[in-house]
Amino acid sequence: MTDPRRQLPSVDRLLRSPELSPLLADTPRAVVVEAIREVLDQARSLDEVPLHDWAAEVQAAVELRMTPTLRPVLNATGVVLHTNLGRAPLATAAIEAMRQVAGGYSTLEFDLDRGIRGSRQTHCRSLLTELTGADDALVVNNAAGALTLVINEAAEHRDVVISRGELIEIGGSFRIPDILAKSGARMLEIGTTNRTHLDDYRAALDTGAAAVLTVHRSNFEQSGFVATPKPAALAELASQYGVPYVHDVGSGLLVDLGAWGLWGEPRVQQALANGATAVVFSGDKLLGGPQAGCLVGGSDLIGRCRGNPLARALRADKFTLAGLAATLALYRDPDQALSDIPVLRMLTLSAEDLKALAATLVAACPSSLEPRPVPGHSAVGGGAFPDAPLATTLVELTPGQLGAKELLRRLRVGETPVVARVADDKVLLDPRTLAAESLELVGSALARAVA
Questions:
Q1: Cys-Cys with 73: which of 194, 239, 295, 417 at CB 3.0–4.6 Å?
Q2: Among 309, 340, 371, which residue terminates a domain?
Q3: Contacts of residue 382, Cβ cutoff 8 Å, sequence gap at least 6
Q4: Residue-wise pLDDT tens digits, 239-272
Q5: Phi (first) and psi of residue 427, to 5 degrees
Q6: Across 231-241, average pLDDT
Q7: Are residues 144 and 212 both part of a single domain?
Q8: Rounded to whole angstroms, how far apart are CA atoms 156 and 154?
Q9: What is the pLDDT of residue 192?
Q10: What CATH number is associated with residue 79?
Q11: Whole-model pTM?
Q12: Do β-strands 421-423 and 426-429 pair in parallel, antiparallel, or remain unpaired?
């Protein structure tokens, strides 16, 4: 019996078919060829070859290939610093600064006044020292890179002291012990998971340890029978032994958010005031800028880090530096920072603001989903303020026979992807993480999803 798959058309035959002519007029030929091969391979994998609308299948395969994998989405989850969705959205000023350096040449490493080569570290250094009170500052590609760099410079081939209670795992299964191992330093664990005392650090320094490191436990809180020395006491002890004290504060908080019920996250300025030799933090978390690793502190250690070969391997690009500098400049006026930096604006929305946004979103949703406002909670995300009671007003949707999971899927794969959450077979939308101008877009995406 003849194998029906022998009747499949050839690649050349499909390329010459009139149905694909419009597609070839608008799409690179190589993309169409690969799409045809993919469709034919799928057909060959079947035991029986059903009837095919080859033009439609090739068109679908081409569209899939031509769609970027890195796409904008609407975040309706209420998680402000959603790592999987790109963490901090940028301020308009930061976006404009990045746009200005994108289309042509720039002063990335050029001194206009003297007409000679300059340093890319110039662009954020003065802003970071001005805002934090540090003597010096350095920017690399991310916080893990900054930590690797400073520990390599301070304690390569020597011991760095760290409490067992701070051997945490950060995003993507990366762990502090693994990062320290790559820095070239030897990790000297002290204390226990829940209790570490100043005498534990002193005993470790008596053995000749080269640096003291504390890492903020940003992803979780410890309570109950716990103890850890104050940063100021650790800074004084390290100074007595003539070794640097490095404090990784994590999220890069520069403003006090206590008025909005957000407590417990260390501010960069306070870490320096406590006596840290170097402070490490991220640019794309609570700071609200692009992905970057910021390192601020004493001029001796930071200066040595700047000359370390790792600094070049980990250096930030012109887009990061432009966006970070523009974000930092907004902090010169704290009120402007709170209003113009999206992360800070979302975290400080009032209950009235959230109710108004929820009402607008309810009006935009299809009535068939029975949208209604309900009380709920948002999350800061990004490992910051893990126990913060961030009250919000959610919009609850009843998907009916479609089901919550299927509605979520349709929202994700739609023309304008929307990411939401589900509870008790209800789809929940949090307006905290949706810009006011995007609420109608969410309504349109829902209408297409249920059509």
A1: 417
A2: 340
A3: 80, 81, 82, 83, 87, 88, 218, 251, 282, 285, 286
A4: 999 999 999 999 999 999 999 999 889 999 999 9
A5: -90, 130
A6: 97
A7: yes
A8: 6
A9: 87
A10: 3.90.1150.180
A11: 0.91
A12: antiparallel
